[in-house]
């Protein structure tokens, strides 16, 4: 992967992830509170709907950037040694590795974000400090394995499908694909997620 592709993956992936996470944040808060052991209203109800947004804002860009840099780098590495009928397998491997790396950032972000959403009277910083004091650094990675196991099946379908749709559209137009078309392919593939 050349420097230009690396930078494009880093910036585009980070921006896309941040836009999605921040746009859907209120819905995520409601979901977290509905799933809270305290019950929806004791966890904050509709009050403080943006509780935990600093954690999401800080972690979102590097999380998505790490995924796409890993995905694109692995895909590039495997491209030269993979027969064309095995290309979807290469995309599956790349997506799985991308999830494993991204979860190194995603899980601590999610732990702090969800705990803040369920306790809106505490600041993101206070939740982070409490987690470190009570559980140590390992507390930030609570659920890492289950999160990776949850994310990989979606990526195994979503990313090979995204690549396939881009290839079909690219061929139908004689070898050109605009970024909005790649985004449309991603939206269709992302419906699975």
From TrEMBL:
- Record field: transmembrane: 6-27, 48-69, 89-107
Task: Name the reaction it catalyses.
Answer: S-adenosyl-L-homocysteine(out) + S-adenosyl-L-methionine(in) = S-adenosyl-L-homocysteine(in) + S-adenosyl-L-methionine(out)
Example GO CC term: the record gives:
membrane
Solcar repeat segments:
4-77, 86-168
> Where would you say this protein principally sits, based on its record?
membrane
Any keyword Nucleotide-binding?
Answer: no
One Pfam family cited in the UniProt record for this chain: Mito_carr
Question: SUPFAM superfamilies attached here?
Answer: Mitochondrial carrier
Q: How does it sit in the membrane?
A: Multi-pass membrane protein
**Compartment annotation:** Membrane
Q: Which residues form the signal peptide?
A: none
Kindly give the PROSITE patterns that the UniProt entry links to this protein.
Answer: PROKAR_LIPOPROTEIN (PS51257), SOLCAR (PS50920)
InterPro entries noted in UniProt: MCP_dom_sf, MCP_transmembrane
> Which keywords label this protein?
Membrane, Repeat, Transmembrane, Transmembrane helix, Transport
**Role according to the record:** Mitochondrial S-adenosyl-L-methionine/S-adenosyl-L-homocysteine antiporter. Mediates the exchange of cytosolic S-adenosyl-L-methionine, the predominant methyl-group donor for macromolecule methylation processes, for mitochondrial S-adenosylhomocysteine(SAH), a by-product of methylation reactions.
User: What family is this?
Assistant: Belongs to the mitochondrial carrier (TC 2.A.29) family.
Q: What name appears for this protein in its UniProt entry? A: Mitochondrial S-adenosylmethionine carrier protein
Q: Which organism is it from?
A: Triplophysa rosa (Cave loach)
Please spell out the taxonomic lineage of the organism that makes this protein. Eukaryota, Metazoa, Chordata, Craniata, Vertebrata
